[in-house]
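forwarding from the other thread:

> can someone predict this with adenosine-5'-diphosphate?

sure thing
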Amino acid sequence: MESMLTKLAPAATRLGVRRMSSLGPEVDVLLKDKAYVNGAWIGAASGKTFQVTNPMNSQVITSVPDMNAADVSLAVDAANDAFQTWRGTTAKYRSDLLRKWFNLCVANHEGLAKLLTAEQGKPLAESRGELVYGSSYIEWFSEECRRIYGEVAQSPVASKEMMFIRQPIGVVGMITPWNFPNAMITRKVAAALAAGCTCVVKPAEDTPLSALALGVLAEEAGIPAGVVNVITSSRQHTAEVGKVLCESPKVAGISFTGSTKVGKILYRQSANTIKRLGLELGGNAAFIVFDSANLDLAVQGCMASKFRNAGQTCVSTNRVLVQESVVEEFIGKLKAAMDNLVLGDGMKDGVSQGPIINKSQFDKICEMVQEARGQGAEIVVGGEPHKSAGELFYKPTILTNVTESMSLYREEIFGPVVSIKTFKTEEEALALANDSRVGLASYFYSENISQCFRVAKKLETGMVGINEGAISAAEAAFGGIKESGLGREGSSHGLDEYTNIKYMCFGNL
Ligand code: ADP
């Protein structure tokens, strides 16, 4: 760690890092106020910038370039030029570079984690967890890279040989969200690079610094200029930047993680150029507690899936469905576990829930809870902001008497609010859980093995946690069905989005 920092520091100074002594030296070497295009740290052509603030206290951390359509076109050109060389490199070469990048992420673990907490607000322990998770994708794809195999088929004609090889699709435009500012980037970029693609990454406007820090380390790892480009844009320019990525004939694919609403815009915009699309969109995860469940495990799983990142994840539990006979006991145990949550500055030891990312998300949570109360939901605990911790804190909340007409039941609340509805039978629980246009993750708890198989198969989601509330890993195929998206990230399938199968037929042999 020490030697790595010493090694990075002079380069970082030379490149004009803005030093923020308050975040510490290990963050300073990673903190950038420029975008990373074609191996250079540059501003927007317009000279415009926007501020990145800490959601804990609204303090400005730094400013980054506010890039527009013209800037992103240049980044696409750079990625396209770099692709002409990168596509021809060996898997071993790419694997070695990814491994170097991974090693640098590990060496800079603490700096990356602190930067993440500063711009995103999640507790430092969670940021460290995200870093381990995010870096694991780089490690995983450095390994998978060398196992991108083809096939030789049995030809029906003796004079022909039929072969399929996998080739990189080309330049990939990546648009990522603010809830996992590191991991949502690494699981796209590492897979793309492993396959031989190059990329232009547009991180969320709330959290561009973790993305730029990954750029610092990619450069340090020796990944060639133009292979990874990171451009930053404010909300004002996001739509035009996204449009260029979707419409440019030089971009072969789009990989997006974010809301279903924006995913649909990108899907539509990509139609003219028939892009390859990877869409990781919103969910509305049901968390079902059957009467056969081990309630202590269920509470543990509910805490993990609901309160991680203050409920701001796309696989967060959104609808807790509990069998009538165990609801009181479950609520009692859940409330006791929630009493242990500590709200505050994520940089401080012992804090387990940070602020909500921004005012508009915060207001949305307040409005949804208000609306549910107006329609008859009852508050067991919480149900209001927690002003003493800061402007953007919301109390861990349990609501009962939740009905299907309430918007917090139909849409992701993206906050620390547990909405509970009871059911009588397994059939009713499945009907409730599957009554949704989205299908990302679901969870259920049961000690009945037959029920476990039955329910797991019938739930209409891409991922199911069975007696488990934390399901994500680089080894796992992450993705949804219905309006939750297309494609899978992680696992060996994570490479599929970035490769084309070419069929070669050798005739007249
Ligand atoms: P959220 O509402 O949680 O911020 P979004 O789907 O709006 O989720 O944001 C996810 C990512 O999509 C962010 O990087 C954001 O800047 C980007 N984004 C938002 N609107 C558009 C758009 N019209 N075109 C392209 N990207 C967009």
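Residues 175-177, 204-205, 238-239, 242, 258-259, 262, 265 surround adenosine-5'-diphosphate (CB under 6 Å). thats all i got for now
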